[in-house]
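Predict both folds.
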Amino acid sequence: MTAVPIDEPGGGEPSRPTRQEQEPASDTVTELAKGLYRLQLPVSMPGLGHVNCYALEDDRGLTLVDPGLPDQATWEALGHHLAQLDARFDHVHTTVATHSHPDHYGGVHRLRAEHGAELLTHSSFSSTFGPDSIWDEPDSASLDLADDEDLERLRQRMRQTTPWGTRREPPTVDQIRGWGGAGKNSTAGGFRVPEPSTTVEDTDEVVLGGRTWLAVHTPGHTHDHLCLYDPVDGLFLSGDHVLPTITPHISGMGTLDDPLAVFFRSLERAKELPEVDLVLPAHGHPFTDLAGRADDIIGHHEDRLQVIREAGLELGDAPVEDYMRRLFKERSWGDMAASETYAHLEHLWLLGQATRSEKNGAKTYRIV
C-alpha cells in the first residue's frame, strides 16, 4: 500500500499555531510510520472540520481507528482514501473506537454490517449519556433522518432535563442531518453505540497492524476513553484525550461524578508515559510534546476555575448559566458551554470551594 509520507509536500504539515482541528478534511493519505496511515474524514460538528481515521496495516488487511460519522459523505471519503492504499472496504477486518462519540464510532455500523469488521473498545464503552440514552431506544434508532416528522420527534426526545435543572435545547434539523446524513435509508441508528466484539482493560496488550499496543484508559472527555501506546516506536494514539490546539470538551452531562478531576488524573498519567515520540490525535495534526501539551490543557482548565472563582465574588448564589456567560464568549453560549461550566462548578463544590443550592429545580452555586 502507498501513501504520501508526512514530511513531503502535500503529505501533512507540522502543527499550526491555532485551531488545526477545524481544518477541513484533507484528500491526502499520509504515512506516519511503517504500515500506519492517517485518513482524514469530514466532520461538521461544533469546532471540528475532520476526524483522523488511522489505518494500521497487517498481513490480514487493515484495522481502522475511529472510522468517522455514520453518513454517506464519510463513507465515500473513506472508500476514496482506502483506494489510495490499494485497498477496499472488505480489507478492513477490525475497527477501534477510542470512545463513545459518533464521529469516532459511527462508521463501525456499516463496516460491520456489510463487511464483517470487528470492533475493539475499552470495557466501559457505552453511551456517553448513560443507559437511558435516547440513541439506545429502538424507536429513536429507526427514525428516518430524511423525514421532517421523524426528525422533529427525535428533537423532542432530546429535550431532556440537564443535571443542573434546565431543559436541554436539541440540535437543529440541519445539524442532525449534517451529522448523520440525509440520504436514502439514513436513520438515527448510526448514532446508537455499537456492541464491541472485543474489549480491553487498562494496561492490556493488543496486537494491531503488526504492532503491540498498550491499552491506556484515559477517562475525562468521556468515561470510556481509550488511548493506545506503542512503546517500541514511541507512538501514542490519543483520540480526543490530548488534542494539539483545542481542549477536549469536559461534559457535566456524562456518567462521571467529577469529570474534570478524572480528566486531570488521566492527563497526568499520559505525561508519565516514557519516550513518546509522536502523538496521533483524533483531530488536528500529529505532534511530539505530549507532556507539554498535557500541561497546557491542565493550565487552561485551571485558568477557567480561577475565572469562576473571581466571577463568584460578584455573582453570589447564581445558576450555571450566569457563570457560563462569564466563562465563554457569547457566540459559544448554549448547552455545551453550560455543561462544561457545570463540570467546573461541580469540581469546585466537591473540593469544598463552593456551596450548592437549588432554586425552582435549578442548581445554584456560591463560591466560598
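Second protein follows, with its predicted C-alpha cells after the sequence.
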Amino acid sequence: MSVICPDAPAWDAFVSAHPRAHVLQLSAWGELKSAFGWSAERVALTDAQGRITAGAQLLFKPLPFRLGTLAYLPMGGYVSDESQWDALWQAVRQTARRRASVLLKWEAGCYLEAPAPDFAAWGFRPSAQTVQPPNTIYVALDDDEAMLARMNQGTRRKVRQSLKHNIRYYEAQASDVAKFTALMQATGARNAFGVHAPDYYALAYRLFVPSHAALILAEHEGDTLAGVMVFALGNTAWYLYGASADHKRNLMASYGVQWQAMQWARARGCRYYDMWGIPDAPEAELEAQFEARNDGLWGVYGFKRGWGGRVVRSVGAWDLPYRPLLYQAYQLTLRLRHSP
C-alpha cells in the first residue's frame, strides 16, 4: 500500500465510483474553494497495482491570530474496506501536520443506506461549529405522480401553476450566468442573508456544468424570474444555490424551476434530491415553529417542507485535535466571537 496525492482525473474516477459519492469531494470543488480563501489537497491509498482504494480531499483555511490552519474534510473520506480507516487517518494526519493544522474537522454527511462510522473510536469529538448545514430534506425522485402526491396541497398547486403562463424553463449557457448572479444578489438583499460574489457562481458554472451540474433558469416575457444551480453525482442531486426575482412572484416560477431541477436530476439517474439546509432542530420543533419564525434557515423551511421529502440529519461535525493547546485557544476564540 502506498500513499499518493492523486491527479484530478484519477481522483474523480475513484470518487464517482464510490457508493457515497459526493460532489464536495470532486476535484472541481477543491478548485472552486481554492479560489475563495481555502486551499485543497488530496491524499489517497493505493494497492499494489496502483489503484486508489481509499482517500480524502481536504480543504485548509488559516485560523485567526496565526494559530495555524483548519483542516476540513467535507462529505468524505472513502474506503474500499473498513480496515483501511486507520491507514487513511494516518496519511491525513501527515498531510495536516505539513499544513500546520490545529485540528481536522470532519463532516461525513448523511448515511441513508449504511451505518455511520464510530467517530469516537478514532479520537474525534462532536463539534457545534459546522461548515455545512447538518439538517436537510431528502426528496425521493421516482415518477411525477408519486412526487406530486407526496407534496403538500399548496406546493402541488403552485407547481402546476408554474407550468402555465408561458414561462420558459431552460438550461443556461455561460452567457446567462450574470442573470443568475443578479437574482442571487436580489434574493440575499430581500431575505437578509449572505450570498457569494458573482465570480463564485461563474466559476462554479465553468467547473461543474455540464458534467456534474446544471443552471436552470425561468424566464417570462424577457424577465428572468428564478434560477437553480443543481449538482449531481452518483444517486444524489444537491440543490446548493437558488434565487428568485422580486417581481411576478404570482407566477410561481421558483416552484417551476425547482421542479425542472428535479426532472433534470432524475433523468441523470439520481434517486434522491437533497434540498440542502434547514434549521438544525427536531422535526416536531420545525413543524411547531416554522410559521412564526423567519430567521436563518427558518425562512426557507416552509418552502422546502412542501415538496414531500423526509427530514434527515447528517452525522454533524466532528473535531480531531492535532495540537491540543492550540485547539483550546481556537475554541476560546470561537466562544469570544459568538459571545453577546
